[in-house]
Write a structure and sequence with these properties.
Elements: H1 2-12, E1 14-19, H2 23-33, E2 40-46, H3 50-57, E3 66-67, E4 78-81, H4 88-97, E5 101-104, H5 114-121, E6 126-128, H6 137-144, E7 148-157, H7 166-170, E8 182-188, H8 189-195, H9 201-209, E9 216-222, E10 229-237, E11 241-248, H10 258-271
Parallel strand pairs: 1-2, 1-4, 2-3, 4-5, 5-6, 7-9
Antiparallel strand pairs: 7-10, 8-9, 10-11
Helix pairs in contact: 2-10, 8-9
Length: 279
């Protein structure tokens, strides 16, 4: 009986902090504060506007301190990054340096900070990328153990979900008057991550699970005929041919699907679960 008691105690001691309190971060904070995952406690939050964050957190059933980014590793064993991509390094580096776990939502920004992956590889903490607004990453990862010949993804988003993307601004592409589906990008996942940092984390997650960001090919369509963020993925491998489509209902932030926050909760639950389903 002693080993079972010891394992239960370890799971009960898991603490979580959140960096960023936007649509994803606030959903996570509410769920954790309400005890959505047994044995997992929300212990801290960091946000750009601390006063606004404090106001939101005061509505939760538990007291959660609001602190600076570099304080999070000292307050939790797992830090979930839900912040703008531009501050990824500021969030993740202190976590890894402290030997803790960083769960990264802005996975596209990891391509611009390869040093973070090297830091984790050297034994300083670890980085976990949840599935996010995608599907089939477990199957893609399994196929990658063999040989994957090609990976393509076609993304269709409502106009509001793409407005302000750096790639559109840089190339003078106006989608505000778009009345029919319009292809606005075709290229690699690496290029998409640079041009659409708030939109295409899914493409980078797919590429990291499969054949990499320079071989994963992507099309992005601004589509006024859809109301959901839609991704179709086709993988041709020596073990299987995968053809998968997901239609995500947008959250309060039109660039982000509701399922993204739920995916993070699922990933957190697996960290603390006695039974884990899926690879």
């Amino acid at each position: 009986m002693a080993p079972e008691h010891h394992q239960s105690t370890q799971r009960g001691d898991m603490t979580v902090a959140i960096a960023g309190l936007g649509a994803i971060g606030l959903t996570l904070a509410r769920a954790l504060a309400q005890g959505a995952i047994p044995g997992m406690r929300l212990t801290a939050v960091a946000a750009r506007d601390q006063a606004k964050a404090r106001e939101k957190l005061d509505r939760l059933p538990v007291h959660v301190p609001v602190c600076e980014l570099d304080q999070l590793p000292g307050l939790a064993s797992v830090v979930v990054e839900c912040a703008p991509a531009a501050v990824l390094d500021q969030v993740v580096r202190p976590v890894l340096a402290a030997g803790k776990t960083a769960m990264v939502v802005s996975v596209g920004a990891l391509l611009s900070h390869p040093g973070l992956i090297e830091l984790a590889r050297s034994g300083h903490g670890r980085i976990i990328v949840p599935t996010g607004a995608l599907l089939g990453l477990d199957a893609v990862g399994a196929a990658a153990e063999g040989q994957i010949h090609s990976v393509t993804m076609v993304t269709r988003k409502p106009i509001a979900g793409l407005l302000g993307a750096p790639y559109l601004v840089e190339h003078g592409i106006d989608i505000t008057q778009c009345r029919e589906p319009m292809r606005v990008f075709s290229g690699t996942a690496r290029e998409a991550a640079k041009g659409f940092p708030a939109n295409l984390n899914v493409a980078v997650a797919l590429s990291l699970a499969g054949i990499g960001p320079d071989k994963t090919m992507l099309e992005i369509w601004a589509d006024p005929t859809v109301v959901r963020n839609t991704h179709r993925i086709v993988v041709d491998a020596d073990s299987a041919r995968l053809d998968m489509t997901i239609e995500n209902i947008p959250s309060d932030n039109p660039r982000t699907g509701r399922i993204t926050a739920l995916s993070v909760l699922s990933a957190l639950r697996k960290l603390n679960a006695p039974l884990r389903v899926g690879s």
